[in-house]
Amino acid sequence: MAGGLPLHALPAAALRDRIASREVSAEEAARHFLDRIARLDGGIGAFLRVDAEGALRSARASDARLDAGGAPRPLEGVPVAVKDNLNVEGLPTTCASRILEGFVAPRDATAVARLRAAGAVILGKTNLDEFAMGSSTENSAFGPTRNPRDPSRVPGGSSGGSAAAVAAGFAPLALGSDTGGSIRQPAALCGILGLKPTYGRVSRSGLVAFGSSLDQVGPLCRTAADAALALSVIAGRDPMDATSLALEAPAASLAEGGLRGMRVGVVKEHLEGEGLEPAVKAAVEAAVGVLRAGGAEVREVSLPRSGDGIAVYYLVATSEASSNLARFDGVRYGLRVEGRDLAGMYEETRDRGFGTEVKRRILLGTFALSAGYADAYYQRALRVRRLIADDLDRAFREVDVLVGPTAPTVAFPLGEKIEDPLAMYLCDVFAVTANLAGIPAVSVPCGADPAGLPAGFQVMAPALREDAALRAAAAVEAAGLLPAALPGAFA
Amino acid sequence: MSARPPRLVVGVEVHVQLATRTKAFCACPVEFGAEPNALCCPVCLGHPGALPTLNRGALAAAVRAGLALGCAVAPRGAVRWDRKNYFYPDLPKGYQITQYDHPLCENGALALSDGTRVRIRRAHLEEDTGKSSHAGDGETLVDFNRCGVPLLEIVTEPDLGSAAAVEEYLRLLRDRMILAGASSCSMEKGEMRCEPNVSLVRGDGSSTGISELKNLNSFAAVRAAVAFEAKRLEEGPWHPAGAAPPRTTYGWDDAGGRTILQRTKETAADYRYFPEPDLPDLPAEALAGFVAEGRAALAAADADRSAAAGRARAEAVRLGLAADQADLLLVRDLTGGRFAAALAAAEGAGAPAAEAGPALAGWFLGPLAGWVNGRGGDWAALRASAGDLAAALGLQRTGKATAQVVKEHLLAGEWPGTGGDPAAFLAGRGLLGGAGEEAVRAACAEVVAANPDVVAKIRAGKTAARGALVGQVMKRMRGTADPGAVNRILDGLL
Ligand SMILES: [Zn+2]
Q1: Which residues of A are catalytic, by number?
Q2: Is 0.90 exceeded by the ipTM?
Q3: N or C terminus of chain A with fewer C-beta within 10 Å?
């Protein structure tokens, strides 16, 4: 038996191997994680709902399968936490919003169904910023999630519940969604790894849409190898999503292969950006040093239109969101508040059902698409979006990956930015580029500030080159710039 | 006022329901008349997380339809989907998937019989909405069975100049859609919804507002509504040339025979169209296969129809049918093969073609068409079989039942809906076998006795008055008397 590491400190692949080799049963593993959640999540708030019964049922099914001599599947018995904007059959999908009150998902999201088919055990649903709109998980109708590294601070967002669950050892693997950094930024702030795949790699079927042309489902976990394993399970063509790419899922060995011959571009605008904390900058430079020392060829690369990213992102994402969230109208499911007439019912329902940030974004998007303004806002944003993608195409002719900080800061105290939407939006200034261009990007821990708060290193790669991004991330991970041990109370 | 009368200007928007087994963007079946909300799924109900996927059958049908209207398919190089955003309870997603500035088909035309070329601006694919109904207690109920059913919206230029031309265009359009196998265009089932835009223009360029007419459920209603509105608009008000005339929606009150104001559009609604991110653009190359298949299917349908028309012409000569009868029964096959089957049965039972053809044609286009139209217009309601109809013709040919009895008591009553032996049906009502000589003689005598003034006129030489006596005798005999016998007996009495 490998070392004395407790089950909750193991990466997903190692836990799966212990279950597959019958060192530990899937049921024991599930109970271990469920016990931890019951004991420790009160102070974190990572989960909105724990499905102990469902988890134990699937764990026992895994054990029965192995008992019967069945071949262990890629994630046999591995507990997984799912962001609560992904449908899990029979459980409520809340999107951390009051407006979905009472809605129970009739079927699994494709990514969830594929996890189950690979033997994973779904533990429950994790907290998020309402409809994935936010960067701190404070915009949840059911209360904030706290950062396991320092519970007075935010875990980032919007996949803050999933990131905190992995960071606290409540699950070795979690699913998140990333529209403008929502997997990578919380991974960075919680000191774990997060992968946003190429747009179209993973089916969006069953993911509640925020910005449909930007949204992508991806894993949060502890290692690059786990991210590759998870991607090999959840990716691949899905007839239920017309934008899913007609490609097989990549192999689980995607993160292997090292840095040999890799050309690394350090994004000048990201490293010289205003608001980048010195400790984050120093950590990122250390990671660049690791890549150079590992044999990569490092150079500086310019993405001149980086500065427009946030503006373009907030126009495209909010425009799409204003349309995507129109279905929450009180007519067929979820919350309904009666009004004086039909229009009154819509108004009352949406007024009480949506939180402030969601309303702000619906208004922004509605405005950006309105007759007389669409040319100046939405249409112009589409044109600049193409220019940003062109910048990246040019850069990727010279380098294999682009690197820099995932977010400008380490985790900030709860309440610090909640009254200042613009400051909050700038959390994703480096992250949105990958969503606008549809390319894959990873955040991997690259150190910590003097208070021990983690910094994230972002690796972007051309479309479908998750392998390059994960190989670079694996090299940074191997350098151990952030102590691997679970934080304080969660060890 | 201008000296010349104002010119009627009409353009038409038609929504045609494409003939597919499943909905446009999900796998739900398309059926008419199912239980409310029996045909829906998370996609067409707009559940969170559900995504649309294009039904390629709908695309193929839409391409065939466009080709049948002479349109260019995807002339802008790609087909794009857009979202049209608005709130309404029958619109589950809060937007309709449609095509805004890259329609599937553009620039077609249909030619009317007088040579008028009706230009078709565009034809685009979109999804239908659900159906709201307002219950008496103020509740609104919504049936989503129709929601997501594929529609083709076909928009003409304002090239139509009369109510008759509008009707001819619509009949032609329906004929093309049926030929292309794109839609069955049953107006009763809402598979073809027509909205004419009507205005008047004077010689000096001034015009009335544009009336958009809705709720038109038959060709007759379209024709009547356009004619009514054209007349009503003559009163003005008139707007100077160059000014954008106001658009107003009117519903058609079929019973009252008039249009009813629904709403005035003060400002154009802002639908915030934007490209549908859930459906990738279809490049023209991806459509090439559909276009090639569509052309082949249309050519085959045209060839079939020409061959059928040739056969029908020869058959019309053999049967001695009038051209319009042959067209309706043999070329367009209004009865779905029922005429041909009844004819075959009658010929098989020994009736000569030249006798059975005109007789059965008269039945199918006369009393039976009336019977079917009174029951929703679906010939499937006719349960009298080909053999039953041949037997009925046999009764008439052998004098066991008069033509009048067959027409009034057999073909216009309950028998078409049940079928069965016509002899037994008539016998049970005392209408079979023709009336005996004694009964006819008695009836004639009664009528002569009851009408001394008419008898006097006839005897004075006004022989035309004799028809009144024949009619009264026939009425007394409930049509069972042979008209020849009635005339012979009356001659004797007079
Ligand atoms: Zn459906």
Answers
A1: 83, 158, 182
A2: yes
A3: N
